[in-house]
């Protein structure tokens, strides 16, 4: 008998393809974010180099901007905020990896997708913070008819928000009837 056969191998609590799904979304999303930033900054130029490009009159335009803070400019005036948020992104990325693949949360495909979107956004913006000292934004949504003006953002921000919304929806979902029925039996 082979000695390796005597040592039990721990079984993964998630399908092996989950790591592929996670990294496909995370790296694909980050690559999409970084390539769109590069394209639009090349096309439009540095902030205030030219007038914004109208996509939908009085609603959506492309306008380059640098953001040293977090989502929607949060803490942009805090010294070293870009470095602080880069470090927080790295800590969050490690936490996501541990939660999914060490603690086994990747067994839930929906949770894997939500956290992969958050990872994609974190990677895209973290790259900007570490390489450039700020995040490049270029999408400006404003609805002039109702005086709504959103901060200028990028696709990494969108992925962070969509991932966070999915997490909230997953947290608010009602437990399945089988889990509720099984709970009293487990406590007996």
Summarize the topology:
Elements: H1 3-6, H2 17-44, E1 53-56, E2 60-67, H3 81-102, H4 109-132, E3 135-143, E4 148-149, H5 155-172, H6 177-187
Antiparallel strand pairs: 1-2, 2-3, 3-4
Helix pairs in contact: 2-4, 3-4, 4-5
Estimate the global geometry from the Cα principal axes.
globular
Order of strands across the main sheet? 1-2-3-4
Residue windows where pLDDT falls under 50 for at least 5 positions: 176-188
Secondary-structure element pattern, one letter each:
HHEEHHEEHH
Helicity, as a percent range:
55-70%
What portion of residues belong to β-strands? 5-15%
Brief sketch in words of this structure:
With 188 residues, the chain is of the alpha+beta class.
Question: Would you mind describing this structure in some detail?
Answer:
With 188 residues, this protein is an alpha+beta fold. The protein has a domain at 46-172. Helix content is 57%, strand content 12%. It contains six helices and four strands. It has helices at 3-6, 17-44, 81-102, 109-132, 155-172, 177-187, and strands at 53-56, 60-67, 135-143, 148-149. Strands 1-2-3-4 form a four-stranded antiparallel beta sheet. A hairpin with a 4-residue loop joins strand 3 and strand 4. Helix 2 packs parallel to helix 4 (109-132), helix 3 runs antiparallel to helix 4 and helix 4 (109-132) runs antiparallel to helix 5 (155-172). It is globular.
List keywords for this structure.
single chain; 188 residues; alpha+beta; 4-stranded antiparallel β-sheet; 6 helices; 4 strands
């Amino acid at each position: 008998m082979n000695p390796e056969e005597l040592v039990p191998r721990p079984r993964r609590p998630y399908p092996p393809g989950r790591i592929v799904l996670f990294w496909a979304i995370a790296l694909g999303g980050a690559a999409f974010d970084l390539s769109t930033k590069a394209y639009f900054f090349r096309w439009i130029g540095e902030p205030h180099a030219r007038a914004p490009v109208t996509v939908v009159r009085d609603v959506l335009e492309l306008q380059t901007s640098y953001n040293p803070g977090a989502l929607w400019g949060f803490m942009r005036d805090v010294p070293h905020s870009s470095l602080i948020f880069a470090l927080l992104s790295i800590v969050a990325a490690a936490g996501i990896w541990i939660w999914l693949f060490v603690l086994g949360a990747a067994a839930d495909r929906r949770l894997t997708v939500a956290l992969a979107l958050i990872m994609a956004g974190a990677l895209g913006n973290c790259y900007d913070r570490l390489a450039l000292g700020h995040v490049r934004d270029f999408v400006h949504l404003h609805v002039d008819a109702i005086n709504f003006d959103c901060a200028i953002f990028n696709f990494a921000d969108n992925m962070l928000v969509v991932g966070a919304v999915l997490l909230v929806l997953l947290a608010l979902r009602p437990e399945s009837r089988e889990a509720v029925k099984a709970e009293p039996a487990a406590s007996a």
